[in-house]
């Protein structure tokens, strides 16, 4: 896609210093800018690069005053980083603005949809599926019976949305994600065999939820597994049956949350965290990477370790832990002295 400096200045409501007809077709770091590229300057430590960059257009803050001659056109805005992010979002919207139904697809006669639908080749829409406006279903995606999606939902290639799942507006589900598979429910009988407990619930994703590639979210045994609005999940995360995650909580890759655990709002959970089932984690909790959570957690706690401790206590304890060999040697020396007396 090609954009001119004038078009970009209009999108960003910025002040253009340079030729409005200069065209760009790609984005670049300021130190790697070449002719035909667009870049930005937000961090002062990169200022020197603006005088050497070959980028055709650079987005800068309004208070930027060049001290040398520039080869690049400038678009001045209130916040260069925020404006560049806005431009990336706009670029993605344009790039993903596909419409129409490719062939072959399977679309049940009972499935309904709003305006601007995109169905990629080999995608599947089951019975009684209801889709809002501007939904994008990419190739090889599966949408099971009775699934409901709001407006502006994107389901990328190869994602699987099991039956009865409810998805709000502006959600993104990346490739390889599985939403609504059976929860891990088995009960032993008198012979020691494990018999499956039917998983009759569903998954509910509220508005503005992002699901990373390869992430799995299990349906509830009864009721719903729920991700509240604004939840963001990284790649390769496991969310078990009947889990509830509060608004605007973010979870990094390879974390696993066991069944029926409730996580509060605005939490930040690092990668490879393990969380046991049937506990409650409060609001605004921060959990460091590779921690193991086996107890209820109060609001605003910061945890690290396995089993996890208060972050400050963990750091104090770690000082002693890493010195254990020295401490052990000192104790052994003292014992030898006492034995020789």
TrEMBL record:
One Pfam family matching this protein: LpxD
Active site: 241
Reactions the enzyme catalyzes: a UDP-3-O-[(3R)-3-hydroxyacyl]-alpha-D-glucosamine + a (3R)-hydroxyacyl-[ACP] = a UDP-2-N,3-O-bis[(3R)-3-hydroxyacyl]-alpha-D-glucosamine + holo-[ACP] + H(+)
GO-annotated biological processes: lipid A biosynthetic process
GO molecular function, one term: N-acyltransferase activity
Keywords carried by this UniProt record: Acyltransferase, Lipid A biosynthesis, Lipid biosynthesis, Lipid metabolism, Repeat, Transferase
Protein origin, superkingdom: Bacteria
Lipid biosynthesis listed as a keyword: yes
GO cellular component: a single term: membrane
Annotated metabolic or biological route of this protein: Bacterial outer membrane biogenesis; LPS lipid A biosynthesis
Limits of the UDP-3-O-[3-hydroxymyristoyl] glucosamine N-acyltransferase non-repeat region domain: 21-89
EC number: 2.3.1.191
Subunit structure of this chain's protein: Homotrimer.
Family: Belongs to the transferase hexapeptide repeat family. LpxD subfamily.
Function text: Catalyzes the N-acylation of UDP-3-O-acylglucosamine using 3-hydroxyacyl-ACP as the acyl donor. Is involved in the biosynthesis of lipid A, a phosphorylated glycolipid that anchors the lipopolysaccharide to the outer membrane of the cell.
Name this protein carries in UniProt: UDP-3-O-acylglucosamine N-acyltransferase
Organism: Pelagihabitans pacificus
Gene symbol of the encoding locus: lpxD
């Amino acid at each position: 896609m090609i954009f001119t400096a004038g078009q970009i200045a209009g999108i960003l409501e910025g002040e253009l210093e340079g030729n409005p007809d200069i065209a760009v077709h790609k984005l670049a770091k300021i130190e790697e800018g070449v002719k035909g590229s667009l870049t930005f300057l937000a961090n002062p430590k990169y200022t020197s690069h603006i005088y050497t960059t070959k980028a055709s257009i650079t987005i800068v803050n309004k208070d930027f005053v060049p001290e040398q001659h520039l080869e690049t056109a400038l678009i001045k805005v209130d916040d260069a980083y925020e404006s560049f992010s806005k431009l990336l979002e706009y670029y993605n919207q344009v790039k993903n603005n596909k419409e129409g139904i490719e062939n072959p697809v399977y679309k049940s006669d009972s499935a309904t949809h709003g305006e601007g639908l995109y169905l990629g080749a080999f995608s599947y829409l089951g019975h009684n599926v209801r889709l809002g406006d501007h939904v994008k279903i990419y190739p090889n995606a599966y949408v099971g019976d009775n699934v409901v999606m709001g407006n502006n939902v994107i389901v990328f290639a190869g994602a699987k949305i099991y039956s009865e799942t409810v998805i709000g507006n502006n959600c993104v589900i990346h490739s390889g994600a599985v939403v609504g598979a059976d929860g891990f429910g088995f009960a032993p009988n008198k012979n020691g065999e494990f018999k499956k407990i039917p998983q009759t619930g569903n998954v509910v994703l509220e508005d503005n939820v992002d699901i990373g590639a390869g992430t799995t979210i299990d349906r509830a045994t009864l009721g719903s597994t729920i991700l509240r609005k604004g939840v963001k999940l990284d790649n390769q995360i496991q969310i078990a049956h009947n889990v509830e995650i509060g608004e605007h909580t973010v979870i990094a890759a390879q974390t696993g949350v066991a069944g029926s655990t409730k996580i509060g709002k605005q939490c930040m959970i690092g990668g490879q965290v393990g969380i046991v089932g049937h506990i409650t984690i409060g609001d605004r909790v921060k959990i460091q990477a590779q921690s193991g959570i086996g107890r209820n957690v109060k609001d605003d706690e910061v945890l690290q370790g396995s089993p996890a401790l208060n972050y400050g206590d963990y750091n104090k304890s770690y000082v002693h832990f890493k010195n254990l060999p020295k401490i052990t040697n000192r104790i052994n020396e003292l014992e030898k002295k006492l034995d020789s007396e």
